[in-house]
Amino acid sequence: MNNIQAVIITIGDELLIGQTIDTNSAWIAQRLNHLGINVLRRVAVGDTREAILNALDEEWLKASLIILTGGLGPTSDDITKPLLCEYFGGTLTVNEEVAAHLKEIFGRRNRPILARNMKQAEVPDNCTVLFNKLGTAPGMWFEKNGKIIISLPGVPFEMKHIMEVEALPRLKQLAEGDVIIHRTVFTAGEGESFIAERLMPFEAALPEHIKIAYLPDSGFVKIRLTGKGAEVAVLEAEMMNLQNQLVTTLGDIVIANEDVTLESLLGTTMQGNGKTFGFAESCTGGYIGHLITQLPGSSTYFKGSIVSYDNEVKENVLGVKKETIEQKGAVSEETVIEMATGALKILNTDYTLAVSGVLGPDGGTERVKTGTVWMAVANKDRVLTKVQHFFYDRERNKEMAAKMGMLLLWKFINGKQ
Amino acid sequence: MNNIQAVIITIGDELLIGQTIDTNSAWIAQRLNHLGINVLRRVAVGDTREAILNALDEEWLKASLIILTGGLGPTSDDITKPLLCEYFGGTLTVNEEVAAHLKEIFGRRNRPILARNMKQAEVPDNCTVLFNKLGTAPGMWFEKNGKIIISLPGVPFEMKHIMEVEALPRLKQLAEGDVIIHRTVFTAGEGESFIAERLMPFEAALPEHIKIAYLPDSGFVKIRLTGKGAEVAVLEAEMMNLQNQLVTTLGDIVIANEDVTLESLLGTTMQGNGKTFGFAESCTGGYIGHLITQLPGSSTYFKGSIVSYDNEVKENVLGVKKETIEQKGAVSEETVIEMATGALKILNTDYTLAVSGVLGPDGGTERVKTGTVWMAVANKDRVLTKVQHFFYDRERNKEMAAKMGMLLLWKFINGKQ
To answer: What's the CATH code of the domain at B118?
Structure first.
């Protein structure tokens, strides 16, 4: 089955009224891409028979693979299973393996098993069951006229599990078309227009089968190259060469030649150097510690964070002087320096990052306007400070403060600043 | 224009390769719903002429309002504007207001203005410009055959700004159809099947124009009622009555009769009671502090958090005894009790929450399996502890630990536990 073209259909009114943000589609798209499967479109529809059937009919014409998520639960708004059964002309019958699994789950939780739960063991007799070890709704794999439809539960960790264990290995065997390769260069410090201007000769020389895209995000720009070709090795060499050209051209602003987060950049920097860091966070409220600890293994270099939201905590725990806060303000160069050096001692780390700012919407003054964020990074030998002014809403200002703080720490550790 | 039916089309290859999670659509859907505008479908397509034109042609037949986001930037992958201009048979002409705004932005940033930036001031002469105060790409409003197409930049804060200030007020004047009202009841402690079982008589008695949906998420279930009707007051009274029935039936597990987050539940509880809280976070790494400080005004009740990821920080900063950690382990009831009581002193707060666990994938032992999380909440009079076992991946285990911790704190403060 060459060049599989996929469409992802997500089912659920919660997606159409904005109650839920769809994270499933992005994850599925990534995994399909890894197999060289192109995602043509994503469609979200409501929990109605008409909407689902209509989407199936339309997307069926465009795609050779349809991945459906949602609508497989045990409640009345879950209508996907009987509908697919009917669509492919099957009959619902009990699958013994799923039935045994359901009994086991409810037994383990010491819960009575309800008729509506046992109904989840009924599957269309014309599909392959994709066993769901982590939940009660099995996935389903239908084939018709050389096309494939995969139906998965909408709960993200169940969907991911079934994809990893059941669906992707099967798809891998079928996917043998053109290879798709993405290469990303991650930059900081320049806007997309200016980067595009510097890349005009590069863009003009790009061959037809390689596309470029600019993804600006919170003060950073990712430049993505997407190539398509028949031969993996040939395409990889070509992409590598182009990526190197990008890195050379944009050398001063490149921080990584892959699509990574700042927390993993920091993780890579710290891994194996035997050093540790910790934070003194005020306006970020613990967000930087949260990002850092998303990575397994962060405990080898991250010791902790003093979230000193209240000035009393800055004084009592970090040892910031009362006079400094009174005379210079909680959002000032002097305060973040004392926060960083205080944290160095109390957390007993090699490096610290301190952040204090006014994120808004309120709290700004004539002297310290909303959006002002002071940062300091320190080791026992030196302290480096920086002030930034963000003009967005509270949430985005926090995001920016955390990212710019991590960037400053990364540059400091790597001797780039 | 009665009963506007909307479709949201998001444009960008980053959405189809999973590089970006689409948060725009959920936000847009919520806002449209508030005006009584129903969202029929959401479609994501790539940055190609064919994909965009095809989506426009198809969705045009289904909807009376199409909202497009993305593809309006200054780089070569941004093709939406000329394409829409052509689709509606217009000509690109310079808009003086936008041109002046661009010069002002680049002037303020002390940046030279490039030709590709000035191109952003060119708009189709057959659209209404939706001025973008926060960025360089203007929004556009087209009308044809009684239908509306709105094109917006994909950068979330710019999109939101244009919607709020320019698009929604105009749409509000046009939307005069049936009202849509959502009511949510937020529960904790029971699975969706069991809740559905308890609600069988309730579901059976629901009138045709009111739908029910179950949204399970991380140990919580939200039950949503969606009603549609001609008269606001009549429908509101009806929905209120049904919501009250739900609350009565599910009284023991209801934690709120609205769609709120745990951080805002805690905020509401603390607001005006003159008390404060703080945290001692180990495995959550600062995530609970982060969630709490997402809310403006949280500084009145949140003093800070000691993120004691390393045991040394638990001992040195929180005063957990070395013997406790050695004999009972860092993930134990004894340790979280000492963390909570230590934080009570050092943060000088009325309430504290302490969390310590093993999130995985590694770190589990025979005695403390991966997924085990101990929590303690305390005030000066008492300490309450709880242990939970989560079976998911690291990220989800952290999410669950944070939410269950906040729930325990909320119950403790409200005397429910």
So the answer is: 3.40.980.10
When scoring B305, B316, B339, B389 by the number of chain A Cβ atoms within 10 A, the one with the most, hence best to mutate, is B305
DSSP A339-400: HHHHHHHHTT-SEEEEEEE--SSS---SSS-TTEEEEEEE-SS-EEEEEEE--S-HHHHHHH
Whether residues A266 and A205 share a domain: the answer is no
Considering the domain architecture, whether residues B339 and B252 belong to the same structural domain is answered as: no
Best mutation target, A61, A310, A339, to test chain B (most B CBs within 10 A)? A310
CA A415 to chain CA mean position, Å: 29
Q: Which of A14, A211, A215 sits opposite B213 (nearest CB)?
A: A14
CB contact under 8 A, A41 and B42: no
Is this prediction's pTM over 0.80?
yes
Residue A305: which of B155, B286, B398 has the nearest Cβ? B286
Cross-chain CB nearest to A306 (options B20, B215, B306): B306
The CB density around residue A331, as the number of other CB atoms within 10 Å, is 24
Q: What is the distance in angstroms between the Cα of A382 and the nearest Cα belonging to chain B?
A: 23
Which chain A residues contact residue B310 at CB under 8 A?
A: 276, 299, 302-304
Number of domains in chain B: 3
Residues of A in contact with B45 (CB under 8 A): 40-41
Contacts of A228 (CB under 8 A, 6+ apart): A178, A179, A180, A181, A209, A210, A235
Residues B108 and B217 in one domain: no
Chain B positions touching A307 (Cβ under 8 A) are 279, 286, 289, 304-307
Residues in A touching B21 (Cβ below 8 Å): 21-23, 26
Same domain, A99 and A151: yes
- Domain housing B244: 179-256
Measured CA to CA, the distance from residue B228 to residue B235 in angstroms comes to 7
Q: Give dist(CA A151, CA A130) in Å, integer.
A: 9
Q: Which alpha helices (DSSP H) does B122-272 contain, by range?
A: 156-162, 168-174, 192-198, 200-204, 232-249, 262-270
Please tell me which residue of chain B has the smallest CA distance to A211: B77
CA separation for the pair A277, A349 (Å, rounded):
5
What string of pLDDT tens digits covers the 417 residues of chain A?
A: 557 899 999 999 989 988 888 999 999 998 998 888 999 999 999 999 999 999 999 999 999 999 999 998 888 888 999 999 999 999 999 999 999 998 888 887 777 888 888 888 999 999 999 999 988 899 999 999 889 999 999 988 899 999 999 999 999 888 776 788 889 999 998 888 899 999 999 999 999 999 998 888 777 999 999 998 888 899 999 999 999 999 999 988 999 998 899 999 999 999 989 999 999 999 999 999 999 999 999 999 999 999 999 999 999 999 999 999 999 999 999 999 999 999 999 999 999 999 999 998 888 898 899 999 999 999 999 999 999 998 878 988 999 999 999 999 999 999 987
Q: Do A310 and B287 touch (CB under 8 A)?
A: no
Residues A247 and A98 reside in one and the same domain: no
Please check whether residues B155 and B42 belong to one and the same domain: yes
The last residue of a domain, from among A127, A156, A174: A174
Q: Is the pLDDT of residue B2 over 70?
A: no
Q: Is the pLDDT of residue B340 over 90?
A: yes
Do the chains contact at A111 and B76, CB–CB below 8 Å? no
Distance from CA of B355 to the nearest CA of A (A): 14
- Shared domain for A348 and A315, answered yes or no, is yes
- CATH code at position B304: 3.90.950.20
Length of chain A: 417
Size of interface A-B (CB pairs under 8 A): 333
CA distance B143 to chain A (A): 23
Concatenate the DSSP letters of all residues of B364-408 into one string. Answer: --SSS-TTEEEEEEE-SS-EEEEEEE--S-HHHHHHHHHHHHHHH
- Domain check: are A26 and A87 in the same one? yes
